[in-house]
């Protein structure tokens, strides 16, 4: 089948489904490493939860499959029930042919059942989701465990939806190891790429020719050393029936060497099955008019109430209480991806000359935390930092109390925090890339349209320019309030996104049925 014919079929499937035509209910199994609220490190966990719920609300039978980490049912926070004991997951190693697991379930009121793969050694004993030398084994076990779970017949989905390198290897197993399995054969696979930045347990940017994994051989035996050198993400890209990533702009960017992380050429070849769908935001869970974590609730009609949150934020971070200072916030993982270093460098110039305060919340990279401490030491009355994760009310106070928030990312597949900020009337200053480009529109002071401020180049001049613009706009209260109202009224609801995923699932089924994937990508 020629590539242009495949593109035609996909275009018809993806563009010709009328918005309001109901899609027949499907059975979907989401397989992922972290899922909110059970285990939540980043945006990935949120997407798995909210997307599943949005699809369930459309009438689909959506279930989630994840590891049973030791911390999940401590203190009976979640009431888990064992549904399978002694699930044998093959290792492909004759000396230890199976790893034995259990499957537990949590039934929620939101209509999405979550299954947990239980294994003492690989999940139960671990305090964290990521960061172990045997992570490749842990995610391969989860992927293969999900397939063995399906083979028991307890839940046979139409679609398996995998996420990032952790579970993308499932697409390889299903195409190769289970090729002749009557149950698994009929199931279509979708892989969502949340980030190209991690592809396996090795640095994909510095792979020697000897270690290069082209994805043609079988996945290595579960307990072998070789599994650490395999590129699970590449394998997912090769074998998934459909690929998505979390914004339209990132879907284009990853076809280039700048953002493709060494897989851009492969992605270019399979681009006919790649679709960008921007992430959403749950409007009920993130609502400034009802949020109990705020000092004072507000909406677009009661914006003056917002200042109480600004005072609470200044107080919490040890800053002088000042209404007229522009509070510039930064929230989230301390990570090179997020451009915290650029923000620090730029703020050093801004803080010297303007009536501005800088507040930061979020932990991670120790070097970046050190730079933040340095900035605080330089401007003790203008900088308030909390360089650790905060699961209490600081993030909400930042959304509801800061005036602007910075998003100077090096790359950003989607980004969720800028949507949260907008919903609470904090104006995002974003680099015009990836999901930041797709979720924020640049404010035009003449037409008074737009929801934030944008810059292009990753340098302090570009970021400085937009911060100074914010300082200026902030003086014009009417204009500023219009900008805030525009931002707060943007609709990021998951329900629209779920419709796009329905189309992707249909396309995956069509491709799978016609065995396009195997025809085009048969590498055995
Ligand atoms: C990753 C990406 C982020 C995205 C999130 C959820 O963390 O870095 O941009 O929003 O996944 O898809």
Automatic annotation (TrEMBL):
The entry lists its GO molecular-function terms as: alpha-1,4-glucan glucosyltransferase (ADP-glucose donor) activity; alpha-1,4-glucan glucosyltransferase (UDP-glucose donor) activity
Pfam families, per the entry:
Glyco_transf_5, Glycos_transf_1
Work out whether the entry's keyword set contains rRNA-binding. Answer: no
- The record places domain Starch synthase catalytic at 27-267
InterPro entries documented for this protein: Glyco_trans_1, GS/SS, Starch_synth_cat_dom
Task: Give, as one word, the top-level EC class.
Answer: transferase
Q: What is this protein called?
A: Glycogen synthase
Q: Which organism is it from?
A: candidate division WWE3 bacterium
Name of the gene: glgA
């Amino acid at each position: 089948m020629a590539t242009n014919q495949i593109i035609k079929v996909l275009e018809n499937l993806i563009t010709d489904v009328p918005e309001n035509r109901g899609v027949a209910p499907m059975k979907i199994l989401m397989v992922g490493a972290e899922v909110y609220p059970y285990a939540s490190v980043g945006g990935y966990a949120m997407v798995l939860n909210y997307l599943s719920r949005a699809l369930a609300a459309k009438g689909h039978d959506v279930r989630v499959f994840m590891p049973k980490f030791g911390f999940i049912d401590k203190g009976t926070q979640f009431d888990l029930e064992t549904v399978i004991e002694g699930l044998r997951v093959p290792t492909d190693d004759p000396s230890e042919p199976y790893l034995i697991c259990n499957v537990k379930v949590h039934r929620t009121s939101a209509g999405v059942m979550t299954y947990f793969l239980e294994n003492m050694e690989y999940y139960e004993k671990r305090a964290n989701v990521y960061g172990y030398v045997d992570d490749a084994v842990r995610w391969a076990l989860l992927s293969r465990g999900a397939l063995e779970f399906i083979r028991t017949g307890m839940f046979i989905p139409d679609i398996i939806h995998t996420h990032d390198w952790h579970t993308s290897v499932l697409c390889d197993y299903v195409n190769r190891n289970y090729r002749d399995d009557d149950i698994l054969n009929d199931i279509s696979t979708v892989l969502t790429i949340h980030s190209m930045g991690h592809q396996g347990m090795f640095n994909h940017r510095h792979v020697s020719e000897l270690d290069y994994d082209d994805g043609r051989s079988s996945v290595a035996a579960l307990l072998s050393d070789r599994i650490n050198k395999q590129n699970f993400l590449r394998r997912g890209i090769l074998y998934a029936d459909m690929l998505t990533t979390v914004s339209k702009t990132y879907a284009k960017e990853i076809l280039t060497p700048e953002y493709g992380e060494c897989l851009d050429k492969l992605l270019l070849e399979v681009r006919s099955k790649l679709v960008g769908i921007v992430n959403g935001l749950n409007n009920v869970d993130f609502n400034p008019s009802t949020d109990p974590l705020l000092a004072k609730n507000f909406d677009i009609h009661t914006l003056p109430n917002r200042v109480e949150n600004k005072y609470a934020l200044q107080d919490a971070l040890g800053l002088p209480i000042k209404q007229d200072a522009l509070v510039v916030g930064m929230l989230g993982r301390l990570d090179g991806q997020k451009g915290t270093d650029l923000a620090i460098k730029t703020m050093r110039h801004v803080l010297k000359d303007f009536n501005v305060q800088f507040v930061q919340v979020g932990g991670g990279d120790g070097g970046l935390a050190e730079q933040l401490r340095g900035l605080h030491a330089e401007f003790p009355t203008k900088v308030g930092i909390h360089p650790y994760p905060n699961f209490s009310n600081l993030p909400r106070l930042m959304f509801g109390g800061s005036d602007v928030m910075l998003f100077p990312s090096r790359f950003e597949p989607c980004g969720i925090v800028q949507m949260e900020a907008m919903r609470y009337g904090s104006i995002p200053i974003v680099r015009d890339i990836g999901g930041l480009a797709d979720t924020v529109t640049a404010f035009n002071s003449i037409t008074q349209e737009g929801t934030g401020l944008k810059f292009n180049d990753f340098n302090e001049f570009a970021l400085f320019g937009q911060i100074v613009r914010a300082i200026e706009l902030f003086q014009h209260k009417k204009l500023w309030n219009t900008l805030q109202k525009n931002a707060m009224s943007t609709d990021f609801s998951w329900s629209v996104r779920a419709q796009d995923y329905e189309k992707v699932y249909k396309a995956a089924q069509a491709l799978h049925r016609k065995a396009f994937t195997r025809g085009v990508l048969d590498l055995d």
